Amino acid sequence: MFFSSARDSINEIKESFSKESLLGSFLFFLVLSSWYVLRPVRNEMAVANVDDLPYLLAAGAVAMLLINPIYSWVVSKTNLRKIVIYCYSFLIVNLLIFLSTWKFLGIGDSVWVGRIFYVWCNVYSFFVVSIFWVVIINIFRNSKTRSFYGVIMAGGSLGAIFGSEISKRFSNSFDEYGLEFFTLSAAILLFFAMLLAMNITRSKMNEKILDKNSVGGGSLDSIKNSIQSEEIRNIAAYVWMWTCLMTIQWITAINIIEEWSSDSQQRISFFATIEQIVSPLTLLIQLFLTNIIIRKVGIKNIMILYGFLFLIAYLLYGFFPSIVAVAIVTVFLRVFEYGFNKPTREIIYSTLKQNDRYKSSVLIDTFVSRFGDLTGSALIKLAGFTTITFNSLPLMALPIAGYLSFLGMRISKENKIRDL
């Protein structure tokens, strides 16, 4: 019995490694490499504008809300291959505009250029990844190809490491050359990602897996569906709640860390240690366990489990606020998100109607996700005006964590998803 089960698991792992899954993985590698080259620069802009950060985050959310109808209009008029070309070309042109602004116009030191770049980076990070997932969820939709999602996620993890390393190598050039090397590298990586995505989508169109016709519909479909469709509304609420809960968790953790040590070097060392644990652990899980766990545990249970993990995390922060609690919570939540819950949500997206796969999924992963961040930070801010102690704040968010699990149960039931 044991050996039979082990043999089946090994076969499942082997099946998840195929030409298709590796191409999808390499595409995600290029996409996240492009973003992670820019991410440290974005973070530097955040430090430089720390007092204005809430307003910049709000501006990013508004920008995403305004861009989504334009994106939906483009999607309505064309097919997946052209969507990739139009969207990624637009983002590449934007990168080249920033490069030109910094290099030729001599206004790189402008405070407003830095602020605009910060807002644009947030839009870029969400849309470049969302367009990638639109490709994946429209191609890999049957029970066999959904087993590729873990391997595909692993490519993204490697891309994040690679992009961060490029950015680190260019860090010494920032004072003299500004954004030049960062934006150029990101543009080149995204250009290669676009070429690969074009090749993949063309191949799938030839195989009749993808439709060559336009998606159809209107520019406000994503917003309309999120309001009118209970299915989409529940998915949007789920994403909004977990991003809100994650923000509350992170801000609470930051305060615990500050109380633990006032030494910046010690704090940086702690953050680095967390990354050294999370990155390889997540990568191994994505490569070898994601598909097996989703199949064995089930999509429904994974969606429900997130709320319980937040319940445990908040109870730890509320009653045992320590650096050990922060380490345990951070590792478990991040590994669960990127190893299991994110792939599961993408599998759920792959079961939606075509219009929602192309449009609603992007609205949820861009505007709704950013709105969740804003909600979490706003709740923290509001708590500051009350008599609630900081350690008690996570306990106040326990009902939200409980409702997250309830939503997870409803989503899996409404979608009538068959476990892998």
UniProtKB/TrEMBL annotation:
<feature type="transmembrane region" description="Helical">
    <location>
        <begin position="147"/>
        <end position="166"/>
    </location>
</feature>
<feature type="transmembrane region" description="Helical">
    <location>
        <begin position="306"/>
        <end position="333"/>
    </location>
</feature>
<feature type="transmembrane region" description="Helical">
    <location>
        <begin position="83"/>
        <end position="105"/>
    </location>
</feature>
<feature type="transmembrane region" description="Helical">
    <location>
        <begin position="53"/>
        <end position="71"/>
    </location>
</feature>
<dbReference type="InterPro" id="IPR036259">
    <property type="entry name" value="MFS_trans_sf"/>
</dbReference>
<keyword id="KW-0812">Transmembrane</keyword>
<protein>
    <submittedName>
        <fullName>Putative membrane protein</fullName>
    </submittedName>
</protein>
<feature type="transmembrane region" description="Helical">
    <location>
        <begin position="178"/>
        <end position="198"/>
    </location>
</feature>
<feature type="transmembrane region" description="Helical">
    <location>
        <begin position="21"/>
        <end position="38"/>
    </location>
</feature>
<keyword id="KW-1133">Transmembrane helix</keyword>
<feature type="transmembrane region" description="Helical">
    <location>
        <begin position="235"/>
        <end position="257"/>
    </location>
</feature>
<feature type="transmembrane region" description="Helical">
    <location>
        <begin position="277"/>
        <end position="294"/>
    </location>
</feature>
<feature type="transmembrane region" description="Helical">
    <location>
        <begin position="117"/>
        <end position="140"/>
    </location>
</feature>
<keyword id="KW-0472">Membrane</keyword>
<feature type="transmembrane region" description="Helical">
    <location>
        <begin position="382"/>
        <end position="406"/>
    </location>
</feature>
